[in-house]
Design a protein that fits this description.
Blueprint: H1 2-37, H2 41-47, H3 60-67, H4 70-101, H5 107-116, H6 122-136, H7 142-166, H8 171-178, H9 183-194, H10 196-212, H11 215-220, H12 229-232, H13 244-254, H14 256-264, H15 266-274
Length: about 280
């Protein structure tokens, strides 16, 4: 017993050190952003990015809030994110269910074509996407940004959900059919409850990606009252200089909703990432 503990202790020490180093690497940028947000512009020049502020400038936060118009842009980002993410996951889960649980002719071909969509860079599609949205009359509208967001998000989501749905035993489908369940009943009562951890993990990842998206929003949302948070950060960059202190204050405030969503779904997010790691 003592030998076993002695052998495992060095491993635990290495693991704890590794976790500590990784935590510092992830927390350090957020800490630097917060410290920079607390500095005045002369203080930033004197102390640099990594120095502690000599004078706390709390006024940077309300000034950044007003200059970036975060009261409007944050609401726009929340509306777009909380509409796009559930709709995209719903569409992707239906497609993954059809490809894995139903007899779809040329199902593998369809799956390959869908996954190929994830290989198309967004930058390549910006010009034709602008023409399409302009032709449909959806410029500067929520629908105009939701449609391309969902379209570009579906391939990756279908890829992940297809792999997860395949790990669910088909015997559960047969048992549900014996009880008289339809395909929709199997999807709603069997597959979705078992896939909740994976869906929660996908929700967090997709929410972060949607919240931080810049290229498509820059092309489609051209009115300032429709801007999202990433677009509003342009207000701190001018032709003759940049206000880095207020910019960092705005960045720090903009990541708070993402942290809240992660904390609310943390338990499911971790379970989703580890789902399938143990078979049986």
């Amino acid at each position: 017993m003592r030998a076993r503990i002695a052998n495992s202790d060095p491993v635990k020490v290495v693991l704890w050190i590794t976790l500590l180093v990784v935590a510092v690497i992830w927390i350090a940028p957020v800490l630097f952003i917060f410290l920079t947000a607390l500095k005045t512009r002369p203080d930033l020049i004197a102390t640099g990015t990594f120095g502690l502020p000599t004078e706390i400038a709390w006024e940077n936060f309300p000034k950044a809030w007003d200059k970036a118009n975060l009261s409007t842009t944050m609401v726009n980002s929340l509306i777009i994110s909380f509409l796009k993410v559930p709709l995209g996951i719903f569409v992707s889960s239906l497609a993954a269910f059809a490809l894995t649980r139903l007899r779809v002719p040329l199902g593998r071909v369809f799956l390959a074509v869908i996954i190929m969509g994830a290989m198309i860079p967004v930058q390549v599609a910006l010009a034709p996407l602008f023409r399409l949205i302009l032709g449909l009359g959806l410029l500067n509208q929520y629908v105009g940004i939701l449609l391309p967001y969902i379209a570009f998000g579906v391939p990756f989501q279908v890829f992940l959900l297809t792999a997860f749905f395949k790990s669910i035993p088909r015997e559960l489908d047969e048992a549900a059919r014996i009880d008289g369940a339809s395909a929709w009943g199997i999807y709603r009562r069997v597959i979705i409850p078992l896939a909740l951890p994976a869906l929660a993990a996908l929700f967090v990842l997709d929410f972060v990606a949607t919240w931080n998206e810049f290229g498509i929003a820059l092309v489609i949302l051209q009115r300032q009252d429709m801007w999202t948070v990433p677009l509003s950060l342009q207000a701190f960059t001018g032709q003759f200089g940049n206000n880095y202190t207020q910019l960092n204050a705005a960045i720090f405030m903009s990541i708070i909703p993402v942290i809240i969503v992660y904390l609310l779904l943390q338990r499911y997010f971790v379970a989703g990432l580890t789902s399938g790691a143990v078979k049986g």
